[in-house]
């Protein structure tokens, strides 16, 4: 899906290490994000943050979901640090800790990659009965105009 859509963070560059402030070793708050160049016809945005390297990057067994956001208004240009406040109308889904909201990087072993995936959608999705990553991906099917991603990495200081 070719797109000029851009996702970036003033806290870290694509491919760089995520500052510990945004992890379980710090304040465990979400990093600031900003986006631009949304395609024409964008009605809402969705954001999924996940780690495909769990539990061990040398032998990954699953993708761990850190954050699920959807129905982000199309006129929003980003999220502040800690995502507080969220843009009006934004809905949050469940992460793999079975909690609503952001859960920062906390890899048990090695350096993991964290994919911040932003989707421009041609519709608002409304309330999902079980707002998991899988339910969101199913609801987004056929509505994705463009997508982009920002990748950060993290390794705990004590390992």
Shape: globular
Q: What is the CATH fold-level name of the domain at 1-44 and 58-118?
A: Phosphatidylethanolamine-binding Protein
Give the CATH superfamily of the domain at 1-44 and 58-118. Answer: PEBP-like
**Proportion of beta-strand residues:** 25-35%
CATH architecture of the domain at 1-44 and 58-118: Alpha-Beta Complex
CATH class of the domain at 1-44 and 58-118: Alpha Beta
* Lateral arrangement of strands in the main beta sheet: 6-4-3-7-8
Global structural class: mainly beta
- Contiguous low-pLDDT stretches (5 residues minimum) are none
Q: Characterize the largest beta sheet: strand count, sense, and whether it forms a barrel.
A: 5 strands, antiparallel
Mean pLDDT: 96
List the helices and strands and how they pair.
Elements: E1 6-8, E2 33-36, E3 44-54, E4 62-73, E5 78-79, E6 91-92, E7 112-121, H1 133-140, E8 144-154
Antiparallel strand pairs: 1-2, 2-5, 3-4, 3-7, 4-6, 7-8
Please describe what this structure looks like.
- The protein is mainly beta and 159 residues long.
- It has a domain at 1-44 and 58-118: PEBP-like (Phosphatidylethanolamine-binding Protein), CATH 3.90.280.10.
- The chain is 5% helix and 35% strand.
- The protein contains 1 helix and 8 strands, in the order βββββββαβ.
- The chain has one helix at residues 133-140; strands at 6-8, 33-36, 44-54, 62-73, 78-79, 91-92, 112-121, 144-154.
- It has a 5-stranded antiparallel sheet, covered by helices on one side. Strands 1-2-5 form a 3-stranded antiparallel sheet, with no helix packed on it.
- A hairpin with a 7-residue loop joins strand 3 (44-54) and strand 4 (62-73).
- It is globular.
- The chain starts with 5 loop residues before the first strand and ends in a 5-residue tail after the last strand.
- The model has no long low-confidence stretch (mean pLDDT 96).
